Amino acid sequence: MQLTIRHETRYTYTLPLAYTIQQLHLTPRVEPQQHVLTWNLSAPGHMHSYTDAYGNLSNMMTMDAPHQALSIVASGVVDTVTPDRGRIVADALSPLIFTVPTRLTAPTPGILELAASCLPDGKAMTRDLMCLAEHIFGAVRYQSGATAVSTTASDALALGQGVCQDHAHLFLACCHAHGIPARYVSGYIDPGNTGHAASHAWVDAWAEDKDFTGWVSIDVTHARLMTDAYCRLAIGRDYDGAAPVRGVRRGGGTESLSVDVQIVPQ
């Protein structure tokens, strides 16, 4: 499949800013199941390109001139294929990096109970991981606006509502509680008629099947394996490490944020 993608992030402020710095994970990863045909990243100020510790193609954007608005636009065409049974070719990173709980994925009694319903200790088969995704899908109903980027996995579970990043964090927390490597994935999805946002988050989990050991990519929000409808931007331990746009500013008063993502499949 070819996905034509346009992603605009626009900030406006009630007062001028003196300085802005933003870390951008807005360039698709170099991976066997996706090939970038064209891609352009447009942003004001100074841009420094680099590859971060997780192999994500990243940019650091800085603006040190007074400004009261800024717009970041990523666009292009990506050719994607469906991984066999969701299986992703392993990269050079040790999976053990992705067994450490974070602030957003810390275990609680509720998380431990949810994890125990599906996962064995130490390793899991794909069927165990899909069982967990289905349990999370049932426990945390998709509700846009119910949570924020700072919401923890335990808070989303207690609320019983959330969005894709909450589903991903809860899945990671359950896996880490049983010593199973799992990592956060940010990117895009052709939403079809689901009504969900085109900017998406899901997970890679380390499966140990009879015929395969490695990463299996799972969309927890839809309780399904990754297909060619997905484009991967970044991986990390949680949202904080893989967020498409994340930064700080000096000044500006009250901030207003608008995000527009358009995905056209061919």
Q: What series of H and E elements makes up the topology?
A: EEEEEEHHEHEHEEEEEHEE
Helix content: 10-25%
Beta-strand residue percentage: 35-45%
CA-based gyration radius: 18 Å
For the secondary structure, the number of strands is 15
- Tell me, what's the shape? globular
Q: From the helix content, strand content and strand pairing, which structural class follows? A: alpha+beta
Number of separate helices: 5
Major sheet attributes:
7 strands, antiparallel
The first-to-last residue Cα distance is 6 Å
User: Uncertain spans, ≥5 residues at pLDDT below 50?
Assistant: none
Mean pLDDT: 95
Description:
With 266 residues, the protein is an alpha+beta fold. Helix content is 18%, strand content 45%. The protein is built from 5 helices and 15 strands. It has helices at 109-116, 126-139, 153-159, 164-177, 239-242, and strands at residues 2-24, 34-42, 46-51, 57-63, 67-80, 87-88, 141-142, 161-162, 182-189, 199-209, 212-219, 224-225, 230-236, 245-251, 255-265. The strands form 3 sheets. Strands 1, 2, 3, 4, 5, 14 and 15 form a 7-stranded antiparallel beta sheet that branches. A hairpin with a 5-residue loop joins strand 3 (46-51) and strand 4. It starts with a strand and ends with a strand. The relative contact order is 0.25. The model has no long low-confidence stretch (mean pLDDT 95).
